[in-house]
Design a protein that fits this description.
This protein is of the alpha/beta class. It has one domain: Rossmann fold (3-Layer(aba) Sandwich). The protein contains five helices and eight strands. The strands form two sheets. Strands 3-2-1-4-5-8 form a six-stranded parallel beta sheet. It has a two-stranded antiparallel ribbon with strand order 6-7. Helix 1 links the parallel strand 1 and strand 2. Helix 3 packs parallel to helix 4. The longest helix has 18 residues. The protein is globular and about 45 Å long. 38% of the residues are buried.
């Protein structure tokens, strides 16, 4: 049996309705992440939290020491759960995430968090490229509407496209209920 860890990506106040970058479905995604984290804690599965912070205090989002940069209270780390602070989209870039996983002998990562099309995408692809078995819990992730060249892609379509891509080439994509039952 592989050794598993939960990676909680950027579930921060900035993404709530009161934040500067609200996401579609963030409340439901967070509620599912809460259940997954609680299950992991009960079973002794490591939970690693990733928190995005802008490198500059004059950034428009994820401003250091702001309320928006704080991890949501519902999923806040407890005990010795590590918090990996990153300044880039990829949670592995210029952080000790890989070393944290290696120190625990992790072979299998379960990813929850935000945003599906950015930081979740980056950690899923990097994890798979590094040889980790990857599971993404689709209903414990959230994103937002995107616009390019005058075309708006609704969040549900953005999210579905990302999950289809993950399932096609990077790992398993499950609902939180299926994961917890399993």
């Amino acid at each position: 049996m592989s050794k598993r860890a939960i990676i909680v990506v950027d579930l921060q106040n900035e993404y709530l309705a009161t934040g500067k970058l609200p996401l579609v479905g963030i409340d439901a995604a967070t509620a599912n992440a809460v259940r997954v984290i609680a299950d992991a804690r009960t079973k002794g599965v490591p939970v690693l939290h990733v928190r995005h912070e802008s490198a500059s205090s004059d950034a428009p989002i994820f401003v250091p020491d702001s309320d928006g940069v704080r991890i949501m209270a519902a999923v806040a780390p407890i005990g010795d759960e590590p918090v990996i602070v990153k300044n880039h989209v990829n949670s592995f870039r210029d952080t000790d995430l890989k070393q944290q996983l290696e120190a625990r002998g992790i072979e299998d990562v379960v990813v929850v968090g935000a945003m599906s099309h950015m930081c979740v995408d980056a950690v899923v692809l990097a994890s798979a490229d590094m040889g980790y078995a990857v599971t993404v819990l689709h209903d414990a992730c959230a994103t937002r509407d995107l616009e390019f060249n005058g075309v708006v892609a609704p969040a549900a379509q953005v999210h579905a496209a990302m999950m289809a891509s993950f399932a096609f080439g990077y790992g398993r994509v499950l609902a939180a209920d299926a994961y917890l039952a399993g």
